[in-house]
Amino acid sequence: MRPTEPCEWLSHSPEETEAVGAQIASWLAPDTLILLVGTLGAGKTTLIRGLAHALGITEPVRSPTFTLVHEYRIQQPEALRGLPLYHLDLYRMQSASELHTLGLDELLERGGIVVIEWAERLQMTGVPYEPSHLWQVTLTPLSDERRQIRFQSLDANTR
Amino acid sequence: MRWILGIETSCDETSVAVLEGRVVRSSVVASQAGLHARWGGVVPEAAARQHVERLQPVLQQALDEAEISLKAVDAIAVTNRPGLVGALVVGLACAKGLAFALRKPLVGVHHLEGHLYSAFLTTPDEPIPFPHLALIVSGGHTELVLAHDHARYTLVGETLDDAAGEAFDKVARLLELGYPGGPAIDRLAKQGDPKAFRFPRAWLDGTPNFSFSGLKTAVLREVESQRAQGALGAQTVADLCASFQQAVVEVLVRKTVQTAQTLGVKTVTVVGGVAANSVVQSQMQSACQQAELALYIPPPQYCTDNAAMIALAGYFRLLGGERADYDLDAYASERLGQALAQPIGVARKRSSAPKTN
To answer: Does domain A8-149 correspond to CATH entry 3.40.50.300?
Structure first.
């Protein structure tokens, strides 16, 4: 069950960060938008790799910094099977107009799971859409290996 | 099949080219250079609306430079995968419209297949050497592809996290070197010592796969530590650039050459934006020479995204009899070629090769 209160993990390795991603995957329902916040090297792509693998996605999960959007087909669990997982990266986005040209709003309306790296950039425009579930995951490097990972639901009922 | 029109809108660049047979008659790429400067040296306009605005004038310029009219076009090749769907459909709609209006054949091209052919844009009189091993290395890709023949590819290796060009861009940003980051690092590294900092190389147990995420993080930590000590002067920045670049290039070169040897391939190509890097070129050159491999690297204007390579790939598909219907679609993700049935482990030559952490 997804916690209604914010929760935190301490990760000591990329493997543990992937495990946190898998845990978050187990809470997913259709039409969920996850905002990922964290600096360079904080482990955002690593966390998404764990999440994607837990959803039965077998192809490599790479950074979409240049390609901007990666699309995967969710294989499991049954409730999500066949839905798209969109992995976005706003690192290169500089202006609100660029966010529009990315067609973010259209991707968000397809009922799948959308995970956005460098979601800080959305502060320029706000989230251009009201998903069923809106979560934020914040990764903070504490030292070379250690990461604090914080999960928070921004759903209307818990906001 | 004399005049081939190529159209490429898969990511940032809007490009149209005209080929006469295999010979490039024009290749126009709408550049965002002015735009980057305006944004204080960072990155680009992303997508569809920019392509819509630019495509028409770019098309006209390409026809003008080739000194042909639209009516002379014999076939149209267009990138239809992979990329931003919103961006791809702009080029695709244009290509379909032209094909329909002109009643000329249309063919869809995989963006990476275009990069494979970019190595042969300047040698139109030579047959394309098959089989060859291509290192596709750019901001979005780092892949080793074995080209058996036209339209027959095997994906041999790929990055498991970041592309090499992405690592260049992110390190350039850390060091506040402006845009574009790759050439800035290449330039500064000439003044630096590539052995000043020992950054990790991800050998991944000798497999032909790549990983640059750990290197990026290692450079980040070093930059932070140098900055905290107030030691981030010009020489240190140059040393960081040189050491980082050397770490990337060493992995690219050694894995490419070893994979070629393992597969028994005699010809290697290096394509994509990072292929324009001077140290990639010089070290690949000497490693290939030593290993007696023929090496093809396109000139810089064909390393980065361009429509000439799409037109050339399309040309060979058209010669092979391929024709697309008007329902040709755009796809966000698709790998080029089949993955290897059995992953290959490339024997590591030097047991002292450092492992990544």
So the answer is: yes
B278 class by beta-carbon count within 10 Å (0-12 exposed, 13-18 middle, 19+ buried): middle
Contact yes or no for B333 and A68 at CB 8 A: no
User: What tokens appear for B312 in the block?
Assistant: 């050339």
B255 Cβ contact list (under 8 Å, min separation 6):
B144, B157, B208, B210, B346
Q: Give pLDDT, residue A130.
A: 80
Locate the chain B residue with the closest alpha carbon to A144.
B221
Local structure of B222: helix, strand or coil: helix
- Residue B276 in 3-state DSSP? helix
Q: Which of A2-6, B17-21, B228-232, B280-284 has the lowest mean pLDDT?
A: A2-6
- Band (pLDDT 50/70/90 cuts) for residue B341 is low
Q: Which amino acid, one-letter code, is at B39?
A: W
Interface probe, candidates B45, B90, B143, B144, chain A, greatest A C-beta count within 10 A = B45
**B248 falls within a domain:** yes
CA distance B247 to B194: 8
Please give the C-alpha separations between residue B235 and each of B168, B172, B213, in angstroms, as whole numbers: 18, 15, 25
Distance CA B157, CA B145 (A): 7
* B69-83 residue pLDDT tens: 999 999 999 999 988
Q: Is B59 within the bounds of a domain?
A: yes
CB contact, 8 Å: A78 with chain B?
A: no
Are residue B260 and residue B325 in the same domain, yes or no?
no
Residue B340 within any structural domain of the chain: no
ipTM exceeds 0.95, yes or no: no
Domain residue limits, chain A: 8-149
Question: Are residues B250 and B213 located together in one domain of the fold?
Answer: yes
A68 touches chain B (CB under 8 A): yes
Please state, as a whole number, how many other Cβ atoms lie within 10 Å of the Cβ of residue B354: 13
d(CA B51, CA B304): 17
Q: Is A96 exposed, middle or buried (0-12, 13-18, 19+ CB in 10 A)?
A: middle
Structure tokens at A131: 């998903």
Q: Which two tokens stand for residue A137?
A: 């995951």
Structural domain harbouring B84: 3-122+302-335
